[in-house]
TrEMBL record:
GO terms for cellular component: ATP-binding cassette (ABC) transporter complex. It comes from Planosporangium flavigriseum. Keywords: ATP-binding, Nucleotide-binding, Transport. The chain holds residues 1 to 257 of 369 of the full protein. Signal peptide: none annotated. Coiled coil: none annotated. GO terms for molecular function: ATP binding; ATP hydrolysis activity; transmembrane transporter activity. This is ABC transporter ATP-binding protein.
Length: 257
């Protein structure tokens, strides 16, 4: 692994060929009342990496994601996105894409307007905007549904639109919190494939939250296994599965089926 001190722009490979760091997190701590839910999180997410936070309910995954997104403050620690301190920036200023359950599509807008929403601040002319929206809807396989309202779509289609909306303005980092949680098994497998394809195509840096081991194994370049506000393991799926660093991790993966 390369050291990352002084990286300002994260898009270039480091001299030894490793990918540079997109998000740098050090010693993040967070308590609610007197319960410490994050106990010193250290994490480097590399450019283009698909990193998953995996762990049981209550282990702190969503809290960490919400802190990175800017919806929640942290008590101490440091966070840099492509070299820049983002701790004091509002969620909108952080230049992130988000696919959260609470971040639903706007019901009164068409699919196309939902996807265009995040592009408003770009001040593109309408032809360019339309072309971009079409391109994103094609990428998620829904160009024919541009004029529908969200309620006229299935759950899986709505998730695809949410993904297209999040990716339309090429965020530096895409955060996804259990995006497939509400879908049935078949649809989930289909959406996993879709996510893999989109990720390969765009190379977006992703942090993905799930409690589903199989989903994490299928999607991730690396997995951080969370246990009571700490990482119990952080490695590639193969390494974690074959050489679990603790009994907690081993037990967690052995329950995968
Ligand atoms: P996970 O995403 O792994 O299920 P969370 O990050 O949602 O875990 O929650 C971690 C712990 O923090 C849980 O015990 C939860 O009850 C607590 N928690 C989360 N958000 C709040 C909040 N706003 N106020 C108080 N406690 C919270």
């Amino acid at each position: 692994m390369t050291t990352v001190a002084g990286v300002e722009r994260g898009t270039q490979p480091t001299p030894d060929g490793a990918r540079s760091v997109a998000l740098h997190v050090r010693s993040i701590r967070k308590s609610f009342a007197n319960q410490e839910v994050l106990r010193g999180i250290d994490l480097d997410v590399h450019e283009g990496e698909f990193l998953t936070l995996l762990g049981p309910s209550g282990s702190g995954k969503t809290t960490l994601l919400r802190i990175i997104a800017g919806f929640e403050s942290h008590d101490s620690g440091e966070m840099r996105l492509q070299g820049n301190d983002i701790s004091r920036l509002s969620p909108a200023q952080r230049d992130l894409g988000m696919v959260f359950q609470q971040y639903a599509l706007f019901p009164h807008m068409t699919v196309a307007d939902n996807v265009a929403y995040g592009l408003k601040m770009r001040r593109w002319d309408s032809a360019k905007l339309r072309a971009r929206v079409e391109q994103m809807l094609e990428m998620v396989g829904l160009p024919h549904l541009a004029d529908r309202k969200p309620r006229q779509l299935s759950g899986g289609q709505q998730q695809r639109v949410a993904l297209a909306r999040a990716l339309a303005y090429e965020p530096k980092l895409l955060l996804m919190d259990e995006p497939l949680g509400a879908l049935d098994k078949n649809l989930r497998l289909q959406m996993e494939e879709e996510l893999r394809r989109v990720h390969r195509q765009l190379g977006t840096t992703v942090i993905y939250v799930t409690h589903d081991q199989e989903e994490a194994l299928a999607l991730s370049d690396r997995i951080a296994v969370m246990q009571e506000g700490r990482f119990a393991g952080l490695d590639t799926p193969t390494a974690l599965y074959q050489r679990p660093p603790s009994t907690f991790v081993a037990r967690f993966f052995s329950n995968a089926n």
